[in-house]
């Protein structure tokens, strides 16, 4: 069943095979107008949906809606098995694998386990000294492409993330999200041992050492 007659009419074409919308660039055919319009933008590069807070542009309205949650901090998607909340559906689905399939991907170096192969691949770089992503402007090297992309903005001056509360601007998503929590008071990182909460993961990591007694930093002169 459908809320709108137009949605029903588009759906019916999946049964009849009718595809009345044809791309003039590559002759691909589509049953629905919206999917056809999105496809055309792949050829033209048009991004008609603009963020009014940071001027980023998007091809589809749904992508703009997801992006706006970065500015507002909204996490409308909640895991029905725990209290975790997420910005977008893909992150929620990845999270649910923790409950359904556990963590089948194990690091051969330290036995850390992950629910996603991509997370294991990213983690393995910690054990190596390889920094394969190099900045062509200053030759600085990074282990992750995302770190390189953030670094490049120090050369261009680009700061696409703007705080809706105080108009401060940031080049990286993580520093922007941390800043937003100063305004909202959100503390999403909770200690499992004493339930203390923190607004940054690094602060939680430091706090946990008060429970474990871990002292990872050793003086090279008097050890």
TrEMBL record:
A Pfam short name: zf-C2H2
UniProt main location, coarse: nucleus
Keywords linked to the UniProt accession: Metal-binding, Nucleus, Repeat, Zinc, Zinc-finger
GO MF annotations, alphabetized: DNA-binding transcription factor activity, RNA polymerase II-specific; zinc ion binding
Gene3D superfamilies from the UniProt entry: Classic Zinc Finger (3.30.160.60)
The C2H2-type domain, residue ranges: 1-20, 21-48, 49-76, 77-104, 105-132, 133-160, 161-188, 189-216
Subcellular localization: Nucleus
Gene Ontology CC terms, in alphabetical order: nucleus
PANTHER family documented for this protein: MYONEURIN, ZINC FINGER PROTEIN
Name by which UniProt lists this protein: C2H2-type domain-containing protein
């Amino acid at each position: 069943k459908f809320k709108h007659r137009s949605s029903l009419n588009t759906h019916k074409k999946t049964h009849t095979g009718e595809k009345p919308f044809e791309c003039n660039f590559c002759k691909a055919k589509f049953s629905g107008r919206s999917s056809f319009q999105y496809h055309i933008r792949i050829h033209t590069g048009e991004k008609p949906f603009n963020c009014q807070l940071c001027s980023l542009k998007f091809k589809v309205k749904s992508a703009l809606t997801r992006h706006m949650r970065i500015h507002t901090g909204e996490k409308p998607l909640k895991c029905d098995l725990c209290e975790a909340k997420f910005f977008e559906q893909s992150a929620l689905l990845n999270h649910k694998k923790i409950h359904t399939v556990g963590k089948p991907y194990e690091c051969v170096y330290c036995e850390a386990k992950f629910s996603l192969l991509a997370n294991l691949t990213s983690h393995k770089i910690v054990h190596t000294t390889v920094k394969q992503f190099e900045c062509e402007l200053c030759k600085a090297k990074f282990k992750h492409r995302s770190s390189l992309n953030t670094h490049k903005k120090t050369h261009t001056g680009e700061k696409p993330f703007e705080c809706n509360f105080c108009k401060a601007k940031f080049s990286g998503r993580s520093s922007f999200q941390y800043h937003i929590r100063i305004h909202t008071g959100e503390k999403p990182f909770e200690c499992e041992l004493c339930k203390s909460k923190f607004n940054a993961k690094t602060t939680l990591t430091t706090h946990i050492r008060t429970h474990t007694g871990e002292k990872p930093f050793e003086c090279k002169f008097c050890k």
